[in-house]
Amino acid sequence: MLHLVPTQLDARADLPPGGRAGLEAARLAAIEQYRILDTAPEPAFDRITALAADLFNAPIAILGFIGAEHVFFKSHHGLDATQACRGEDPAAPVMMPWLRAEFTNGFHAGIPLHDPDGYELGMLCVIDRRSRQVDEQQVRQLRALGGIATDLLAMRLAARRALAQAEITASEVDHRAMNSLQFVASLLQLQSRASESPEVVQQLRAAADRVLSVARVHRSFSTQETAGRVPIAAHLRRLCEELSSSVGGEIRLEGADEVDVPKAQVLPIGLIVNELATNARKHAGSPVTITFHRRAEGAYELCVLDEGPGLPAGFDAAAPSGLGLGMKVVNALVAQLQGTLTTHANPIGRGSCFKVTFPVG
């Protein structure tokens, strides 16, 4: 016996061809937003079909979603098949051709799954190879399980939309933050022009430059994908291009591994590069080379190398005393990464190398 609950798709036989086509286009658009067709199995849906089979004491239960040409089995308890052809007859239930071919004398009970707008997304059904009866209580139970399935879809869609809205909001906040940083830098530059003290002018201009550097790094960071992790090579490449234009010298990225790092690490990495590269350009000229590698022991290695005269004797980049503001900023950022900062000669035989090593996030 085939026990089929009437569905929206079954009713299309009463519509003119144009009406059927319009309804189908709207239905396909509705199901597409859930991103459920042709996806991997998930335990939450498998538990629904397992419970449906148990409630009916049936060997097979299917949770299917209706695509343009086939019904995709998101969960198929007791069955190896992963999809069924829809068939071309709009007057027949959507899975009837497949059911008749696979279970000629069997039993099938199914209920449709609708979204809040009434579009039919799929069905939950139980199948037996032998004929049997079904009662109203079992149909109510099947409807309840189908409701759980559509609730899962609705919650996932709501979460995805909330994430998209959060990203839009974050982008707007980033934009406003950058504008604010640039405004502060402009105020500092204006104030420096009003001062008659050369020392004050120098300090105000240095402060303005640092604020602008934060804005520059922030802008470069904000243009990258920020859903959890960021491709660091692309981020550093863009930052080096902006730095080269800003300082009037070549700052290049060489040999950067194509790895994704956590968002929380990207901003301090960019600020360290900005500070060290700008300082190297000022004291050692160009080119300045940036490298970024993932080491075998589970750590990242960031290097800033110049080809200048080298570091002065006794220089200690990690010593808190005797350092300028720039190196103090770098040390604070390295500590934020839970890393270490070391210095040594550039391996090419001239110049220096600042190396930051920190754990993989």
Topology of helices and strands:
Elements (H helix, E strand, L loop, with lengths): L1 E3 L12 H16 L10 H14 L3 E7 L3 E8 L5 E3 L10 H7 L4 E8 L5 E9 L7 H59 L3 H25 L6 E3 H16 L3 E3 L6 E3 H22 L3 E8 L3 E8 L18 H12 L3 E6 L6 E8 L2
Parallel strand pairs: 1-5, 8-10
Antiparallel strand pairs: 2-3, 2-6, 3-4, 5-6, 7-9, 10-11, 11-13, 12-13
Helix pairs in contact: 2-4, 4-5, 5-6, 5-7, 6-7, 7-8
Characterize this entry briefly:
The chain is of the alpha+beta class and 361 residues long.
Describe the protein's architecture and organization.
Helix 2 (43-56) packs antiparallel against helix 4 (136-194), helix 5 (198-222) runs antiparallel to helix 6 (232-247) and helix 6 (232-247) runs parallel beside helix 7 (263-284). The radius of gyration is 32 Å and the shape is elongated. It has helices spanning 17-32, 43-56, 96-102, 136-194, 198-222, 232-247, 263-284, 325-336, and strands at 2-4, 60-66, 70-77, 83-85, 107-114, 120-128, 229-231, 251-253, 260-262, 288-295, 299-306, 340-345, 352-359. The strands form 3 sheets. The protein has a 6-stranded mixed β-sheet, with helices on both faces. It has a 5-stranded mixed β-sheet with strand order 8-10-11-13-12. The protein has a two-stranded antiparallel ribbon with strand order 7-9. By secondary structure, the protein is α+β, with helices and mostly antiparallel strands. It has 2 domains: 2-159, 2-Layer Sandwich (Beta-Lactamase), CATH 3.30.450.40; 225-361, Histidine kinase-like ATPase, C-terminal domain (Heat Shock Protein 90). Helices cover 47% and strands 21% of the residues. Strand 3 (70-77) and strand 4 (83-85) form a beta hairpin.
